[in-house]
Each structure stands twice: as C-alpha cells, then as structure tokens.
Automatic annotation (TrEMBL):
Ranges of residues in domain NADPH-dependent FMN reductase-like: 105-270
Disordered: annotated span: 55-85
The protein's name in its UniProt record: NADPH-dependent FMN reductase-like domain-containing protein
InterPro entries recorded: Flavoprotein-like_sf, FMN_Rdtase-like_dom, NAD(P)H-dep_reductase
Stored SUPFAM superfamilies: Flavoproteins (SSF52218)
Stretches with biased composition (Basic residues): 61-78
Lineage start: Eukaryota, Sar, Stramenopiles, Ochrophyta, Bacillariophyta
PANTHER family: CHROMATE REDUCTASE (PTHR30543), NAD(P)H-DEPENDENT FMN REDUCTASE LOT6 (PTHR30543:SF21)
Length: 321
C-alpha cells in the first residue's frame, strides 16, 4: 500500500488508537498504515496522534525544479483520405484469392424410386423438385469457414439409376440380394466398385427423401445398406425430407437419423423439412418465393454440415495418415 500525498495520509490517519472502529473498513486501512509505516509501535513513537506529530516534525527540503524544457511544436497531422470504392473492391478480391479453398466431396442420396404419377394427380416423382433445389443451392453457395472458402463437389446417387438396367446395383436389386460386404472386392462389378469408392471417399452426405408409411422408403435403406459402415464412418450427414402433406416427412427424418447413426455417418442437428414442395418450388427446383421461411432451413443445415465435415476431415487426416 502506497500513499501519494499528505492529503491521503490526512484523510486516513486522524483517528486515535482508542476509537471504536470495529468491523469497519477504515479500521483495517488504519491498521495496515500503522503496520507498514511504523512497525506497530505507534504509541511509542507518536503518542497516539499521527497527523499532529507528523505535521509538527521537520519536513524534508523541497527540491528545486529545473526550468521546463521548451515544448516542441507538434507536426501537423496529415489528412488521410478514404480509399476509393474501386480500391476497396480490389482489396476484397485479393483477400478472396489469398484465402485457401476447401472442396468437400458431397454425396447426395435420393430416397425415392417412384416413377408413376399418383392417381389424384401431381408429379411422377416429387423428389426431383426438391433434389434440383438442393443441388442448385449447394452449387451456388459461396460461404467461408474461418479462413477457408468452402465449395462442394457433388455426386448424386439415384435409386432409379443404380437399380435400373446397367446400374451399379442392378445385379443385387432393391431387395439387396448381394450386399458388398458379403463379397470379395475383386468379385464386385466394376460399376459397383466405383460407386463404393465414391461413397468411401466422400467428406459428407446429404439425404433427400420422402416419407413412405411414416418411415424410411425402401429404396433409400437399400441403396445405403448395400455398403458397410466402414465406408460412412466419421463423416457427417444432413437430412432433407418432404411430403405432400403438412408434416414435411419428419417421421421419416427421425428414422433416417437412427439408420445413419448405425452406419457411422453422424446427422447434424439441423433438419430441413418441406411441406407441399409443389407449392414452394417449380419443376426445375426454382423457388417460387426465395424468401419463404421454409426455404431458409437448408442454408443453416449446410453451415452445420460444412463445419462438421471440415472438422472430421482434418481429424481423419491426423489419425489415418
């Protein structure tokens, strides 16, 4: 504790020892002053009144002050004009070029293999509207994660194609007659082996699925179930569901989460569910109202998916290198 002036000592030290200041902050301060300055022998040295004794004691001679040095004239501050807008734009573009770019290999699984229009009318496959919108949103997305610019390299796995004639899983069929994990790698058809490599090399997954009988469509569980969990492990998945009704396929989303957990690809918490997609999207996936609140779910989902995909990708590089 240090005191900078006589006024400070004056304000602290006017009490006599016998005054009752028990429990007060002043008494604590007074005792600390006495301990540090006088070693506790207050009465022996000053007889109980510090200030009067201190004031009567001879004071040290005042030091002579040297003449103040003449002040230097301050240099006038130069006016800094704000950079033109073109310069700012150039700087922004340069920063974008400096930022590193991460390309995420993203596999999109479609959950519908329907190829007939419903008896009451409508799309032959409602999934096409939603899938086109999802693909368009991802490809036009330009987002950053820390110092990295994130883009996606998309591969779509469509059950109509993989189970169709000449498809990668046509030899096994939707009923899953020949799971890849029951076969030797050299016995796999070339197209099946290539599809397995695409799934295994992916950084993240997206599932775009309807809801059949309040649960997972058989085409989706069959396509993903053809390949063992070692192909999916330590990677995130985002789930997009839809339905012609108001519930947006959410019951299927709950079941898809469990399936993906068991396969080893971990679902992000954000879900995207579209009720009545034909009211929200054109046939080619163009939003009828880009600001519709239901369409704001996907960007939030993709942000979580990218965050998890980059983190898991970095960790796989450390553990598996």
């Amino acid at each position: 504790m240090a005191f900078q002036s006589v006024s400070t000592l004056n304000s602290l030290c006017w009490w006599r020892e016998g005054e009752d200041l028990a429990g007060s902050e002043e008494k604590i301060i007074w005792r600390e002053v006495r301990r540090r300055l006088f070693g506790g022998n207050f009465h022996e040295r000053f007889g109980g009144n510090f200030y009067s004794t201190w004031a009567a004691s001879p004071q040290p001679a005042k030091r002579k002050r040297s003449k103040p040095k003449p002040k230097r004239k301050a240099k006038p501050k130069s006016k800094i004009s704000s950079p033109p807008s073109q310069a700012i734009e150039t700087i922004d573009q340069s920063l974008i070029l400096i930022m590193s770019s991460i390309v995420l290999k993203t596999v999109i699984f479609l959950g519908s293999a329907r190829n007939i229009a419903p008896a009451w009318g409508g799309d032959t496959r409602l999934c096409d509207r939603v899938a086109n919108w999802v693909k368009s949103t991802i490809t036009s997305r330009n987002d950053t994660l820390g110092d990295d610019n994130i883009t996606h390299q998309i591969h779509v796995v469509d059950p109509l194609e993989v189970f169709g004639p000449g498809g990668a899983l046509s030899h096994s069929g939707g009923e899953l007659r020949a799971p890849t994990f029951f076969m030797k790698s050299d016995a796999l058809p070339e197209s099946t082996r290539k599809l397995q490599e695409v799934i295994k090399d992916a950084d993240c997954y997206l599932v775009v699925s309807p809801e059949y009988n309040h649960t997972i469509p058989p085409a989706l569980s069959s396509v993903m179930g053809h390949f063992g969990g070692s192909n999916y492990k330590c990677k995130p998945v985002g789930i997009v569901t839809y339905s012609p009704g108001p519930f947006a396929g959410m019951r299927a989303a709950m079941a898809i989460q469990i399936m993906c957990h068991e396969l080893g690809c971990l679902p992000v918490s954000k879900l995207c569910g579209l009720p009545s997609p034909s009211d929200l999207l054109e046939l080619d996936g163009t939003p009828k109202d880009a600001n519709h609140r239901m369409l704001q779910q996907l960007p939030e989902l993709l942000t979580q998916l990218e965050w998890m995909a980059v983190a898991m990708k970095n960790q796989r590089c450390v553990v598996l290198k």
